[in-house]
Amino acid sequence: MEGITDVQTRKLFSDFSDWVHMRFRYKGIPFMVMEPFGDSDCLWIVTDEFEDNGDDIAVLESIFAAFPKKVR
Question: What is the rounded distance in angstroms from the CA atom of residue 42 to the CA atom of residue 53?
Fold first, then answer.
């Protein structure tokens, strides 16, 4: 996807928090993909930069929303 850089995925026994599966930058904004509570079948894509970047984040959100969901 255009604009994604610095992708770091969790490796076994890594320094990442137990809940963090991936870190990446989207248009320079750092994000983390987290699984809250470690085993919840839910992923959160979060950033701690709250600047005026809503349009960029809306595009990122739509791409994740279009990703096929796991069916139980």
Answer: 24
Region label for 53, one of left (φ > 0), alpha (ψ between -120 and 50) or beta (otherwise): alpha
Looking at the structure of the chain, the number of domains it has is 1
Q: Residue 18: which residues within 8 A CB-CB, separation 6 or more?
A: 38
For the chain, list the strands marked E by DSSP.
4-9, 20-26, 29-34, 44-46
pTM of the model: 0.71
Does some domain include residue 17? Answer: yes
Residue 52, helix vs strand vs coil: coil
**Residue 6: what pLDDT?**
94
Contacts of 36 (CB under 8 A, 6+ apart): 19, 42, 44
